[in-house]
Amino acid sequence: MNHYAKPALMAAFIALAGCGGTGDDAAADAVRDNAEATADALDNRADMLEDQGLENQADAVENQAEAVREAGDNRADAIDDADINASAPAR
Which end of the chain has the smaller Cβ count within 10 Å, N or C? Predict the structure, then answer.
């Protein structure tokens, strides 16, 4: 996983841990939304690189954006599959 995705996904999990969400759907949606926001920022960066004529770098950043989206979807799917009860009190 690239260095942009790890901090963003970790921040999502930390935020979820403190918010006492209402279930795995909300947690999965938050992870997916955070990954999408990170990927959108990478896409914007790729556009700027492209505007500067740096096609190879822009392609690499676009690939990173796609990897972030895929990782976010995979993590969100794993949260849904785990069927957690995020609103249950911690023991």
Answer: C
